[in-house]
Write a structure and sequence with these properties.
Layout (H helix, E strand, L loop, with lengths): L4 H4 L9 E4 L7 H12 L5 E6 L4 H10 L3 E9 L2 E8 L8
Parallel strand pairs: 1-2
Antiparallel strand pairs: 2-4, 3-4
Length: 95
């Protein structure tokens, strides 16, 4: 039996190309390391960032809103913030 087009198009991102375990680091280190990883992440790849720093949720959300990435999912589980982030484009070239 073939899948319908709607079933094929509803695939969830199960591929994680890079996982950053930043648990135990204090702010702003998780945000700084996440920014560095975003800068080096190839277009279309997905990374999972895990952090326990209390300021990380807002810091990383701010970072995401100012970079060419999409937040695919976020959850907090047992004191660990999980960000699933996809690089969607590259920054415009500066002159």
């Amino acid at each position: 039996m073939q899948k319908s087009a709607s079933q094929q198009g509803s695939a969830v991102h199960n591929n994680i190309d890079l996982e950053l375990d930043l648990t135990g680091l204090e702010s702003p280190e998780p945000m700084l390391r996440t920014k560095d990883a975003i800068d080096h992440l190839p277009l279309g790849q997905v990374m999972l960032v895990k952090t326990t720093a209390l300021g990380s949720e807002q810091n990383i959300r701010n970072l995401i809103s100012n970079h060419p990435v999409t937040l695919l999912s976020f959850r907090k589980e047992n004191g660990v913030f999980h960000f699933l982030i996809e690089k969607v484009s590259t920054p415009a070239a500066s002159n």
